């Protein structure tokens, strides 16, 4: 057990400096145990993988070259997907602001409201978007509306959380000064806190929109509209040339939106 | 006019900018509103919403506390196993790829090609990988593990690259000046810098993988998603409620611990 024994060094002035005992062996042991049981539970099998992985490349091979004739049918669903995520992100970011206002412990005086709002936000955040979309299709029927609702809920939770963390870290001096001058909490928030959080708030919202486009692309899988519907259909028919076209278009669209959002966010901050 | 009023008048006028921004936002809003289609919305929707809410507040406790392979605890364990294994495999494979795409380690063209490849790997949604791997391994958690591994590679190698490119090189120089060999430079100069950040990023990805693993079941790649979609399609809302409650509790717990551990690792 020499490896686990704490060592020490004697300095020239006689002081003894003990080394911190490394926790690495225990962590590795714990990871190995988890690894073993995970392999048992999931049925991970390297033999199957090496034998059948060829199938994966076959599918990839079928995707290349993509079916360019299919492109004409893709524009409308692609724009539906982008519209869905745009509307959901826009409304979600707007609604996140009042929620974040109530969830910040340094602004809200009522502890119960603060805790309850925070709890609602974290519950919303744990709900996977795809599940939310699935539930929404039961309520709003199949189509883009369900997708919009799912994205809206996710955006509220995501932007809301980042926003209340920011409000809690904001500089309160101006806020307190305004309150002592007789501003109400709300108007002091509007003129003292809002200018501080605004750039980050907008930046987070744009970033969330960017992520939402990726998510929206798969929401069609549960019938929530957009390009995912066609993706699901083509995968079902094993028409991989079409799948390749959809994925290529999606990659290009995501790439453009990512770069545009990065440019905008750099300008904001 | 006193000083305060003068200062107030000094505030920059941004009316033109604000109007332009507002117009752009309104145009986008109008454009995106055209996608809203309420024609499928029927009065049924309200009833269904009520049923869903009712199911979620009165979950099926039998399902929630059964410890055989059909119960929620086992399904959550399976989901966790998928996420865990996927993260580990992905993290290990991401390390060499990250070094290959770091422009301060390999020549620029190679780094660029690997980066382009990684962008493609990242854009493909997890569900598509799931469907592809099901053709390889058959439906089940194994396909889920492979999917998680591949999506983890995409994101982890990008984050790893950022860490590698931020390496402090000064330390290497000082180690060299006191006569360390290349191996010692890597062992004491590079690994301590990278390991904590890599571990922190990997734990973060595990957190994300858990959420993704929960939905992979929708395509039959194991985990809790499959029973969830079956329960929904069968309108068994109390089962849906118990599965969702289990999932939410697990995700909140993992998020809490992952934040704690990551704070500890990064701050030392």
Automatic annotation (TrEMBL), chain A:
Underlying gene: phnB
Keywords: Cell membrane, Membrane, Transmembrane, Transmembrane helix, Transport
SUPFAM superfamilies (UniProt xref): MetI-like
Protein's cellular compartments: Cell membrane
Residues of the ABC transmembrane type-1 domain: 78-258
Name of the protein this chain belongs to: Phosphonate ABC transporter, permease protein PhnE
PANTHER family: ABC TRANSPORT SYSTEM PERMEASE PROTEIN P69, PHOSPHONATES TRANSPORT SYSTEM PERMEASE PROTEIN
Chief localisation class: membrane
CDD domains (UniProt xref): TM_PBP2
Membrane topology: Multi-pass membrane protein
Transmembrane found in the keyword field: yes
Protein family (similarity comment): Belongs to the binding-protein-dependent transport system permease family.
Pfam family, one: BPD_transp_1
InterPro entries: MetI-like, MetI-like_sf, PhnE/PtxC
Entry's transmembrane regions: 24-41, 84-103, 130-159, 213-231, 237-257
Keyword Hydrolase on entry: no
From TrEMBL, chain B:
Entry coiled-coil feature ranges: none
One GO MF term: ABC-type phosphonate transporter activity
One GO term describing the cellular component: cell envelope
Residues of the ABC transmembrane type-1 domain: 76-258
Keywords (A to Z) from UniProt: Membrane, Transmembrane, Transmembrane helix, Transport
Membrane topology: Multi-pass membrane protein
Subcellular location: Cell envelope; Cell membrane; Membrane
Name recorded for this polypeptide: Phosphonate ABC transporter, permease protein PhnE
Name of the coding gene: phnE
């Amino acid at each position: 057990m020499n490896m686990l024994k704490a060592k020490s060094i004697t300095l020239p002035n006689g002081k003894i400096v003990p080394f911190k005992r490394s926790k690495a062996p225990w962590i590795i042991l714990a990871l190995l145990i988890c690894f073993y049981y995970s392999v048992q539970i999931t049925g991970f099998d390297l033999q199957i993988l090496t034998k059948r992985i060829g199938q994966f490349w076959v599918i990839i091979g079928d995707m290349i070259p993509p079916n360019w004739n299919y492109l004409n049918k893709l524009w409308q669903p692609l724009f539906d997907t982008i519209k869905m995520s745009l509307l959901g992100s826009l409304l979600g970011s707007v609604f996140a602001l009042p929620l974040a206002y109530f969830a910040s412990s340094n602004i809200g005086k009522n502890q119960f409201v603060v805790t309850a709002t925070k709890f609602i936000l974290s519950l919303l955040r744990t709900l996977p978007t795809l599940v939310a979309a699935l539930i929404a299709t039961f309520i709003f029927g199949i189509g883009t509306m369900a997708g919009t609702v799912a994205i809206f809920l996710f955006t509220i939770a995501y932007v809301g959380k980042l926003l209340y963390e920011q409000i809690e870290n904001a500089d309160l001096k101006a806020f307190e000064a305004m309150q002592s001058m007789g501003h109400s909490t709300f108007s002091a928030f509007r003129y003292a806190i809002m200018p501080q959080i605004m750039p980050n708030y907008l930046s987070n919202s744009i970033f969330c929109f960017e992520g939402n486009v990726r998510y929206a692309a798969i929401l069609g899988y549960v019938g929530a509209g957009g390009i995912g519907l066609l993706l699901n259909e083509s995968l079902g028919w094993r028409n991989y040339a079409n799948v390749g076209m959809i994925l290529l278009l999606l990659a290009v669209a995501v790439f453009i939106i990512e770069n545009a959002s990065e440019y905008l966010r750099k300008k904001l901050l | 006019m006193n000083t305060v009023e003068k200062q107030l008048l000094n505030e920059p006028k941004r009316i033109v900018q604000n109007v332009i921004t507002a117009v752009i936002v309104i145009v986008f809003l109008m454009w995106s509103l055209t996608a809203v289609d309420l024609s499928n919305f029927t009065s049924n929707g309200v009833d269904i919403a009520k049923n869903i809410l009712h199911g979620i507040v009165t979950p099926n406790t039998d399902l929630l506390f059964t410890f055989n392979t059909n119960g929620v605890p086992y399904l959550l364990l399976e989901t966790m196993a998928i996420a865990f294994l996927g993260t580990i495999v992905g993290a290990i494979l991401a390390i060499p790829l990250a070094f290959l795409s770091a422009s301060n380690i390999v020549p620029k063209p190679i780094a660029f090609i690997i980066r382009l490849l990684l962008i493609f790997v990242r854009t493909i949604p997890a569900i598509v990988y799931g469907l592809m791997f099901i053709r390889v391994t058959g439906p089940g958690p194994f396909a889920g593990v492979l999917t998680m591994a591949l999506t983890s590679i995409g994101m982890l190698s990008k984050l790893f690259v950022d860490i590698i490119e931020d390496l402090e090189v000064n330390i290497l120089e000082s180690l060299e000046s006191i006569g360390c060999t290349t191996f010692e430079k890597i062992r004491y100069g590079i690994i301590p810098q990278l390991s904590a950040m890599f571990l922190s990023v990997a734990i973060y990805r595990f957190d994300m993988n858990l959420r993704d693993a929960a939905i992979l079941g929708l395509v039959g790649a194991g985990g809790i998603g499959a029973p969830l979609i079956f329960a929904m399609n069968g309108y068994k809302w109390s089962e849906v409620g118990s599965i969702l409650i289990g999932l939410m509790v697990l995700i909140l717990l993992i998020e809490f611990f992952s934040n704690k551990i990551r704070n500890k690792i990064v701050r030392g």
